[in-house]
Here is the input.
Amino acid sequence: MKTIIEPFRIKSIETVRTTTVEQREEILKNAYYNPFLIPAEDVLIDLLTDSGTSAMSAKQWAAIMDGDESYAGSKSYFRFKNATENIFGFKHIIPVHQGRAAERILFQFLLSSIDEEGRFNNAGKGKTIPSNNHFDTTRANIEFNGAEAVDLVIEEGKHPEVIHPFKGNMDLKKLEAFIKKYGKENIPVCMITITNNTGGGQPVSMENIREVSKICRKNGIPFFIDACRFAENAYFIKIREKGYENKEILDICREMFSYADGCTMSAKKDAFANIGGFVAMNSEDWYLNCKNLLIITEGYETYGGLAGRDMEAIAQGLEEIVDEGYLHYRIHSTKYLGDKLTENGIPIIQPPGGHAIYVDAKGFLPNIPADKYPGQALTAELYRIGGVRAVEIGSVMFGKYDEKGKLIPADMELVRLAIPRRVYTQSHIDYLIEVFCEIKENKDKIHGIKIIEEPKFLRHFTAKFGLA
Ligand SMILES: *Cc1c(COP(=O)(O)O)cnc(C)c1O
Here is the structure.
C-alpha cells in the first residue's frame, strides 16, 4: 500500500472550538499579536510547538497510575533510569522538569568557578560554546551565564531552498578553525542539536556526529548532544545514510550517543511525555557538581522536579518512540504537509524536517522587511484566517540590536508549523493547506508588525506587538 496511515486508533478525544474571523481579529488584538498570549481554547489547530503536546498512549496512562511517589529511590525512578540507560548509555542521569532545567544546571556548572566552600561563582565571561545551531533556551542559558553561544551549521543549512540530506550537520572546518581561534581552554563543551530544531528540524548524519566527536576528543573538549529529537534523527540516518539502512533504530541511537560524553534532553519531545527531561553524562565529577545544583533548585536526585508518574510516562514513551513503524509515519506525515505546501507555491525549508515544517516567510512575504517581522506577520495571518497557531523563528526570536538600537536581523525569517506527536489527523493537515492557499491569494495586503514591549531574554514568549 502506498497510503501511510496513522499507526494508532483514537480512544479518547478532546473537542476543539471553531471561531469566526471577526472573533479571531479581536482575540489577536487582545493578545498583542503574540501567539503565546492567545488562550489555547481559542485555537483550532495548535502548531505552536511539539513540546509536551504529544498524545500519550494507553500504556503511558496505565504507567502513570502505577507511578511510585516515594521521595527517595522510587520504583518509577529506577524504571526511568533503566529506560534512559538502554538508549543513551551514559553512566549518570539527572532527572529534571524539562530540557531547559538540564541546560541551566549544565551551564551554570560549566560556566562557574567553584570556591573552597563549594559555592559556584559565575565565570562565563570569555567562554564560548559552539553548536550546529543552539536552540533558543540553550542559547539563553549560555548567555545568561555570561558566555557566548556560537552556531557553526554547514552553509547549506542556512539556505531554505538548498536540498541536502543532512542540513543539520556542523561545519567541521569551521569547528576546527573556531577551536584554534578561541582556544580549547575557553570552550568548556561543544554541543550538537539532533535534529537541528532552529535550523529547520534538519537531521545530523552519523558521520558528522562521529567527526565532531573526534575533533573534540583530539582537543580535549567534552562533547554533548542536545538529544530532544534523537529518534527522528535516527530514522533519518536509517533512510538517508549509507550503511544504516538495515540497522535497528535502537542501535542507531546507541551509536549516536556512544560518541558523546553526555546529553541534555527534553522528554516533552521524543519521549511522548507532557513534562520532564534529564541531563546525562559519563564524568563522575560533573555529575556530583550538577547533582548539587539539582538538589538546591529542582529536587532530590531520584526525582529532580518530576512526579514518579511523570518518570513512568517518560520511561514508557522512550520504549514507544524508537518504534520504526511510528517513526515511518511521523516523518512521512510531516513530509506530506511540506510537499503539499510546496506544490501550492508556499516556500518552505527544503527538504521537510522531522517534527515541523518551516515556512520561509522572507520568501513568501518579500514586501515585508526584516524590521517589520515577516514571520510574526505570517503567524498573525495564519491565526486570523484559519485559527491556526504557529511560531515565528526569525528576527523576533533571534534578532539583536546594534549600539544605535537598529535591528540586526536573524539569518532566516521562518514560521514553524510544529506537529504534535499522534495528535492531528490528515484532514487537519488538509485544512491547514487550504488556509495557506487562502492567505496566498491576498498576501500583498498582510501588515508588517512592530514591537511595543519586550523583555531582555527570550522575548518572543512575552513581547507585545502591534500592526506596523
Ligand atoms: C525544546 C528544546 C529544548 C528545551 O526543552 P524544554 O523542555 O522546552 O525546556 C532544548 N533544545 C531543543 C533542541 C529543544 O527543541
Notes: The pocket of pyridoxal-5'-phosphate is lined by residues 51, 98-100, 135, 137-138, 193, 197, 226, 228, 266, 268-269, 277 (CB under 6 Å).
